[in-house]
């Protein structure tokens, strides 16, 4: 199972991910700013010019418009929440990528340190033999 993760981590082009992380954060911030600046829809007023059947029809239309307005406001709030979440996720992703890059560097350093130690050990063994 661990080998599958290693293969998956090695297959990811980390250089490109790190290079594109700031672009993703900037795009997310722009999306958040744009979604935040959009005002919810205004109340629609339907003018009634008639009586009887028309009044009932118009009242029904007004009720439907008001229901739609509330639904659109709910969708707008959901969009803003989703945009905030996307921004947070992009920032977390950027931090995670940075930490993974640090771990990669440490891994390389440990590899070379172990290689030098192995060479020293071989030298000591050959000298003793």
Count of helices? 3
Q: State mean pLDDT (0 to 100 scale).
A: 79
Unreliably modeled segments: none
Terminal CA distance reads 41 Å
Q: How large, in whole angstroms, is the Cα Rg?
A: 30 Å
Main beta sheet strand tally, sense and closure: none
**Strand-pairing-aware structural class:** mainly alpha
Strand content: under 5%
What is the 3D form?
Answer: rod-shaped
Helix content: over 70%
The ordered string of helix (H) and strand (E) elements is: HHH
Strand segment count: 0
Oligomer: single chain
Quick description:
With 129 residues, the chain is mainly α. It is built from 3 helices and no strands.
Describe the fold and architecture.
With about 130 residues, this protein is mainly alpha-helical. The chain is built from three helices and no strands. Helix 2 (about 15-35) runs antiparallel to helix 3 (about 55-129). The chain is rod-shaped and about 115 Å long. The model has no long low-confidence stretch (mean pLDDT about 80).
Blueprint of the fold:
Elements: H1 2-11, H2 14-37, H3 53-128
Helix pairs in contact: 2-3
Organism: Jeongeupia naejangsanensis
Keywords: Membrane, Transmembrane, Transmembrane helix
Protein name: t-SNARE coiled-coil homology domain-containing protein
List keywords for this structure.
rod-shaped; 3 helices; mainly alpha; single chain; 129 residues
């Amino acid at each position: 199972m661990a080998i599958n993760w290693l293969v998956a981590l090695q297959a990811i082009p980390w250089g490109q991910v790190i290079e594109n992380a700031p672009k993703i954060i900037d795009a997310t911030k722009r999306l958040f700013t744009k979604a935040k600046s959009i005002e919810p829809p205004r109340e629609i007023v339907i003018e009634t010019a008639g009586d009887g059947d028309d009044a009932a029809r118009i009242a029904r239309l007004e009720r439907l418009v008001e229901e739609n307005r509330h639904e659109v406001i709910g969708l707008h709030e959901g969009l803003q929440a989703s945009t905030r979440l996307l921004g947070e996720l992009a920032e977390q992703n950027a931090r995670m990528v940075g930490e993974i890059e640090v771990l990669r560097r440490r891994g390389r350093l440990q590899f070379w340190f172990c290689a030098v130690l192995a060479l020293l050990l071989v030298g000591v063994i050959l000298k003793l033999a």
